[in-house]
Amino acid sequence: MSRPLRLGLAGLGTVGTGVVRIVQGRAGLLAARAGRAIEIAAVSARRRDRDRGVDLSGYGWEDDPVALAARDDVDVVVELVGGDAGPAKDLVEAAIAHGKDVVTANKAMLALHGQDLAEAAEARGVVLRFEAAVAGGIPCVKALTEGLAGNRIERVMGVMNGTCNYILTRMDSAGLPYDTVFAEAKSLGYLEADPTLDVGGIDAGHKLALLAAIAYGTRVDFGGVALEGIERVSIEDIRRAGDMGFRVKLLGVAQMTGRGLDMRMSPCLVPAGSPLGQLDGATNMVLLEGDAVGRIVLRGAGAGQGPTASAVLSDIVDIARGMRLSTFGQPAASLKTATRASAGTPSPYYLRMDLQDKPGALAKIAACLGDEGISIDRMRQYDHATGTAPVLVVTHRASRPALDRAVEAMAGTGVLVGDPVALRIEEIAD
Ligand code: HSE
Which of 91, 255, 352, 425 could potentially form a cystine with 269 if both were Cys, beta carbons 3.0 to 4.6 Å apart? Predict the structure, then answer.
């Protein structure tokens, strides 16, 4: 058997400790699969004295994670520090400069600096892998890079933030408003230290940008993701969408269109009977559509100790096996700068509005849609006792600019009470 692969592990939080557990507890299995032993040579964390429930006594210790990069007894640096810059990026850059392979779970760093880091890694002849950065334990980076390498990818879709999916499904099942469920998620420890990373769609947007780079052979373009969080999703919309056969999800979609690369992370309606519509709780789901394979659905835990450490180990085992895969599935220098789609892909929309209950009000609203060439698929008017009529419209496929113009025209009719809510409906077969 070849000599062991020696790890320098930076970050001993939940995921780092999970990696230690697997390396210690599954040594024989890992060695059999990798063809060589996998060992931890040295670790680094903010506090040395904390009891993490694992034995670290046999490992070297570095107060400064960047020092791991220079150690002669480290072959692979495992970066689990987090943060898009600072020590995490310093460590990865130092590791590459010292000729070490790198495994990271850091979506923010790669979404913002992935191209530079991938180019630097390739120039130095080292690998930089990130399975754990996207959807935790779901091997979607591997699926795209390896399993679907023979396909032209038609669409990448997914629920990639478990916290948002927890909040939306709990609002739905318990009939609770956003603020109440947000507080509940916080008390359960689901939210990131900066909750806007979760509920603002940023964390999931980072993940989508990384998958899109692999799927379409383009440079990572987080700035090109049209981002909208879940903060304004109301319990009323969740209920009304349910009445029409939909569920509300924070959905990421990346598609290469004739108008360029369309990437969005936003609250969307999906058919209640579709795999995405049935996804409850803090689970993640990634759907990959390829021209040869059709649709692949991957579902699993998007966070947590075991699932994320499992993904980190998959990259480590690949490196131990001698696999030298490019960071984004093809040489970094060959990745193209994507043209950002000038307008999103047309889709059906859900429109909820309150109308004054008087003759001709509905006709005026319908005319605004008709004037923009938007056809109504379904419509429902709810019980009303107060002089205001709640109305729901599901349109046929329309472009967002046309819909926005129609909504603007509605505001000028004088029959609207308050602002309409417009949510995209993503078309997904059951
Ligand atoms: N906060 C993320 C989530 C996990 O809730 O899915 C880390 O990306």
Answer: 425
Q: Which domain holds residue 13?
A: 5-104
Domain CATH number, residue 221: 3.30.360.10
Question: Which atom, in ligand 1's list, is nearest to the CA of 203?
Answer: 8
Please tell me whether residues 11 and 82 are part of one structural domain: yes
User: Ligand 1 pocket: which of 110, 163, 166, 169 to mutate (most atoms <8 Å of CB)?
Assistant: 163
Q: Name the phi and psi angles at 15, rounded to 5.
A: -75, -45
| Sign, CA torsion 112/426/233/352 | positive
The tally of domains found in the chain comes to 3
Residue 182 lies in a domain: yes
Asked whether residue 323 is assigned to any structural domain, the reply reads: no
For 125-174, write each residue's pLDDT tens digit.
Answer: 999 999 999 999 999 999 999 999 999 999 999 999 999 999 999 999 99
The CA 103 to ligand 1 mean position distance, Å, reads: 18
pLDDT tens digits along 17-34: 999 999 999 999 999 999
**DSSP states of 294-344 as a string?**
EEEEEEEE-SSHHHHHHHHHHHHHHHHHT----TTSS-GGGPBPPPBPSSP
Distance 354 CA to ligand 1 centre (A): 35
